[in-house]
Design goal:
There is one protein chain. The chain is α+β, with helices and mostly antiparallel strands. The protein is 38% helix and 20% strand. It contains 9 helices and 12 strands. The strands form 4 sheets. A 4-stranded antiparallel sheet has the order 3-9-4-7, covered by helices on one side. Strands 6-5-8 form a 3-stranded antiparallel sheet. A 3-stranded antiparallel sheet has the order 10-12-11. The N and C termini lie far apart (83 Å).
């Protein structure tokens, strides 16, 4: 006798006011056995009979929590020395990108490192991706980007936007006295910033005594102005292929100075839409350009990570002179 015949013979009488239906639902009878068919009765609604879960069982040899004896009879508390040591470590972690970037331009020495770490006050502020970075132009506020990527640009009335600059870890954003005053500033990724007004004021004082740190800071600001000029040349005279190659070389150069790029691989947490907003292209045109670079074995673009497979070929594709375009950076 088949399974269907058994169900037909063994089914109970159905009530007159509601038709009788039978549903087929699998259930597990044992942890190692295969699922077995079970016939359950259903009066007009979808029936489901949950099977017991035999896979979760307490074991005899389960690891028990361990306890560490506290040999100190006094309650644990932060001493002044421990607190100062913790604050120093936190400042070092926040200013580490800035120290590496300045040291790539000129040696800053021990005194310069101490001055950098003492020039940042206030608690770090963490903001999610897409949030606006609050700046106070009246106070000439400056903030250090400790981690994350920040964009500076303008938003048009029809929803289009143009990104004119990127701030990476180690960059200092100023609310006034620069081109950032009239631009919107927002986070492209999750960011951590810290107040750098004191550091900015100290290094920006006219007639200050020359020092290795000031020399490195002057070269860093010159490189920032050069990047702005490169962006104007990219948008004004280069085609989509040349723009993309030149931007990737510039980001690679900046990350080599930060010590976050290894060989031709660089961290790129930017979507194709963001790249299109930087280069003044449409999303479709941006996608075709990246595919062309991939076919030419120059760039392997992936989400969050990009590999520049042929740096000399990418420099040639950017079609810029050594004065205005970035060269292949050497080890700093």
């Amino acid at each position: 006798m088949s399974l269907f015949d058994k169900a037909t013979v063994l089914r109970p009488p159905a009530p007159r006011d509601r038709p009788l239906r039978w549903s087929f639902s699998p259930t597990v009878l044992a942890p190692t056995s295969a699922p077995q068919p079970v016939w359950t009765r259903n009066f007009g609604t979808a029936a489901y009979r949950p099977a017991p879960d035999f896979s979760i069982r307490p074991t005899r040899n389960a690891r028990k929590p361990t306890y560490v004896k506290n040999w100190s009879s006094k309650p644990c508390c932060w001493s002044k020395a421990m607190k100062n040591q913790s604050d120093t470590g936190l400042e070092a972690r926040l200013t580490a990108p800035l120290e590496r970037m300045l040291a790539s331009f000129a040696p800053i020495g021990v005194e310069g490192t101490a001055l950098i770490r003492s020039g940042f006050t206030g608690a770090p502020q963490q903001q999610p991706s897409g949030a606006a970075v609050p700046m106070d132009p009246e106070r000439n506020q400056a903030r250090l980007v400790a981690s994350g990527w920040i964009a500076r640009g303008a938003m048009l009335n029809d929803g289009r936007r143009q990104i004119v600059g990127l701030s990476l870890p180690g960059d200092v954003i100023v609310a006034s006295g620069s081109v950032d005053a009239d631009l919107q500033v927002w986070a492209l990724t999750e960011i951590v910033t810290v107040d750098a007004t004191a550091f900015w004021t100290t290094l920006s004082e006219p007639g200050a005594q020359a020092s290795p740190l000031r020399d490195a800071w002057r070269r860093c600001r010159t490189a920032e102005r050069l990047r702005m000029a490169r962006q104007v040349v990219r948008l004004g005279r280069l085609n989509a292929y040349e723009r993309t190659a030149h931007l990737l070389l510039e980001l690679h150069e900046r990350q080599v100075r930060l010590g976050s790029a290894r060989g031709g691989a660089l961290h790129l947490p930017l979507t194709q839409d963001v790249l299109a907003d930087i280069l003044g292209l449409s999303a479709v045109h941006m996608n075709r350009t990246l595919q062309q670079l991939r076919r030419n074995v120059l760039v392997d673009y992936r989400a969050g990570r990009t590999v520049l497979q042929d740096l000399p070929g990418l420099v040639q594709a950017a079609n810029l002179s050594a004065v205005c375009g970035p060269l292949i950076p050497t080890a700093f």
